[in-house]
């Protein structure tokens, strides 16, 4: 029964994104509409370089372009028309590579149509982007190898998959040690009732398959990831009275998280760190997540989990990291030691309150 239901769900999603939606203006909720935020100039430029038709068919719920991308190999789950892939292909450079995977053939066709256009625009002699038709919970079936990517991104797609644990397990498999899943998705304030989960429009608009926000940390750590780190969150609005009736008291947010796959090393410890600066677009300040902003030359005390991530990920070369008590070099104008603890309560709820109201728990 489960397999049959999953197949029916995929058929509904493919119909919705392949036939019902023709452009972003056809959406009936704000779930798949990216909220305008302060976007670094180099990312704005990369997005402006994407072909108009590709952008018109874009349905993401966040900005999934992380930092420190040069030469990286990136996998985009649910790449759609290829907007994020084409922006990223410019940022990773000709020696990097971006692979986009989508289950809707019509979207993959749109993406493939403009490979030559973008490579010529970027001045690349060899294409550094590939688009594949397939399912994001079955990456092995389309030839995605173990530990082959530095970064995996996903923009409002994981909620469309009934088996979210399978997706996260596949992501963990294909990421290199020190790699990251940087993704935006939709989360619910409570366990969704059957009426919402089986509503075709709500599923197609990313609400019907939303994960109860507390379950993300449980799934991630069960698989082996570090605890999720919230980057941003925004309350979702619904522009349809009938859909509002079905949703009732449930609240939804679109949130961007970072999940890191770290090597199995010895016990981590709290550390003092200094951001060296220089990451493209973030030369003076790196907003790492909702809790940590690193300014060039400033000494920050971080918890053991954050220290382990900075030591073992692609960010290692951009930080000076020392155990607590060991003297770090200082510079003129640097602030005094600043201690920050990652809070463990409802990060999604807290951030959503700051952005656009509050999520209400069941």
UniProtKB/TrEMBL annotation:
<keyword id="KW-0489">Methyltransferase</keyword>
<keyword id="KW-0007">Acetylation</keyword>
<keyword id="KW-0949">S-adenosyl-L-methionine</keyword>
<protein>
    <recommendedName>
        <fullName>Arsenite methyltransferase</fullName>
        <ecNumber>2.1.1.137</ecNumber>
    </recommendedName>
</protein>
<dbReference type="InterPro" id="IPR029063">
    <property type="entry name" value="SAM-dependent_MTases_sf"/>
</dbReference>
<feature type="domain" description="Methyltransferase">
    <location>
        <begin position="71"/>
        <end position="217"/>
    </location>
</feature>
<dbReference type="GO" id="GO:0032259">
    <property type="term" value="P:methylation"/>
</dbReference>
<dbReference type="Pfam" id="PF13847">
    <property type="entry name" value="Methyltransf_31"/>
</dbReference>
<dbReference type="GO" id="GO:0008168">
    <property type="term" value="F:methyltransferase activity"/>
</dbReference>
<dbReference type="InterPro" id="IPR025714">
    <property type="entry name" value="Methyltranfer_dom"/>
</dbReference>
<comment type="similarity">
    <text>Belongs to the methyltransferase superfamily. Arsenite methyltransferase family.</text>
</comment>
<keyword id="KW-0808">Transferase</keyword>
<feature type="region of interest" description="Disordered">
    <location>
        <begin position="342"/>
        <end position="362"/>
    </location>
</feature>
<dbReference type="InterPro" id="IPR026669">
    <property type="entry name" value="Arsenite_MeTrfase-like"/>
</dbReference>
